[in-house]
Amino acid sequence: MKILFPEISPFHCFFLETESNHQVYVEQSGNPTGMPVIFLHGGPCSGTKPDHRRFFNPAHYHIILLDQRGCGQSLPFGELENNTTQDLLRDMEHIRQQLHLEKWLLFGGSWGAALALLYAQLYPARVSGMILRGVFLARQTDMDWFLGNGVNRIYPQQWQALKNSVPPEFHENVAQGLYAAVFGENAAIAGQAALQWQAWSGLVALGNAYRPDPNPMHEQTLRQVQMELHYARHNYFIAENQILNNCDVLQAIPTIIIHGQNDLTCPLESSWSLHQALPKARFIVLPNAGHIARGEEMIAALVCATEEMLKIL
Length: 313
Prior knowledge:
This protein is an alpha/beta fold. The protein contains ten helices and eight strands. An eight-stranded mixed sheet has the order 1-2-4-3-5-6-7-8, sandwiched between helices.
């Protein structure tokens, strides 16, 4: 069974200057003359981690990681102004141009998979292939599942705690209530709502493996939650069903779709629907895996996919 490659350090790091006050953290590792691949993290609110370099054989891949605007090491942290999907797509293209890459492989999970698909639809000639994990399509039905009538029926206790963190008038629209709470003037209410959102997200993503953060609420956590709700509130800055409706331009791009059968954050239907729109893509269902890129089954599948892409491309 495939495992992660050994730990490596970047050979170059820089900040991409933008037309705004955002500075986007970018790092390169592996082989500078190898197959270019860009890792697109989820969220949108998290950031990259050193282990994200390890999905790729450093002898054969030119590995590019970036922290999306306001995330990770990008500056200023948590900044929401000039922070939209379109801004992120432009940043990706500017990074490609600055690194003088003709094409690159896109590797993304969850929100990162959505971002990869949107970039490929905008710049299909610049994409050599895609590896997509736990696909998120940013449809209303996806948000309804997560914050409406869906996964709340599996974890009713934690759902009730999340509902109780917003004012009663928002109990029928928890997403709106969360947005009002975390952006409100009452710091105690904002903090409690942010903590309950993180607890809900963590439980849905990790299930029984979820362990609450024992540390008290801090400003960085609130900013992360604000960013995630900023994107959700604006429907991820795309039209309804935009990704599936524009898959015609992706048919010639080699694609591997990997999804855990037990994924409750982004149910398997998302990747299944994408596969119907991209019938030439390789579609892999992992019977024991969930949402995150952890666990032997998921890690092995992702590493196998990167090895397979070296042969295809």
